Amino acid sequence: MSTYLDWLEDLNNRDSRVRAMLRRSLAFDPGAFPAVYPYVEPFLKDEDSHWRRQVHYLVAALWATHWKAGRTGVPLPMAKAIAQHQLASGSASTERRFITLLDADADELPYRLRQTVALLKDQAIDFDSLLVDLLRWHSPDKRIQNQWARQFYRTLHKDTDLPEESKTEEESA
12-46: string of b/e by CB count within 10 Å (b at 16+)? Predict the structure, then answer.
């Protein structure tokens, strides 16, 4: 577990109201609910980046919403968890939601992730990797979104015999 999630878990072990306050913060923009400042600010210290601050508040709130004592299963990265949900539910709307999540900008992302985490209520999510990925969400080459797409579709089709891609003339030469 990351230092940040260890910090949240330790706070939660000392006072279960921490989770309740962090869950409530989802009704606000990330970092705009003063009641959770005591839980997140000590960890952030002198962080000046607006995006990094928002991501830490958002991940804390999502973690608190999804937290369950004794949850079984290996925590999965977000894209793999979504693919597993689609495989288990057979719902075609899951893929549409996933694509919408990949296309989300900074303003839409908290809402889309809140929906997604609610959808994945029965699955263990790797919040460490979510934090790392969201910190790099705005990379110009959309590296994280491409990584998530690969994880999602490879998980969906891991047991499928797909034909091999044919080589072009340039590759054969």
Answer: beeeeebbebbbebbeeebbebeebeebbeeebee
Looking at residue 116, which CATH number applies to its domain?
1.10.520.40
- What gap in Å lies between CA 171 and CA 146, rounded to an integer? 24
Q: Who's near 65: CB < 8 A, 6+ residues apart?
A: 22, 23, 26, 114, 117, 118
Q: Which domain holds residue 47?
A: 1-68
For the record, the structure tokens of 58 come out as 């958002």
Query: pLDDT (tens digit, 9 = 90+) per residue, 75-109?
Result: 999 999 999 999 999 988 999 999 999 999 999 99
Strand partners, 76: 125
Residues of the chain with pLDDT under 70: 1, 69-72, 159-173
Same domain, 3 and 60: yes
* Phi-psi label, residue 30: left if phi above 0, alpha if psi -120 to 50, beta otherwise: beta
Predicted TM-score (pTM) of this structure = 0.87
Cβ(21)–Cβ(36) under 8 Å?
yes
Instruction: State the Cα–Cα distance between residues 88 and 69, nearest whole angstrom.
Output: 23
pLDDT of 110: 96
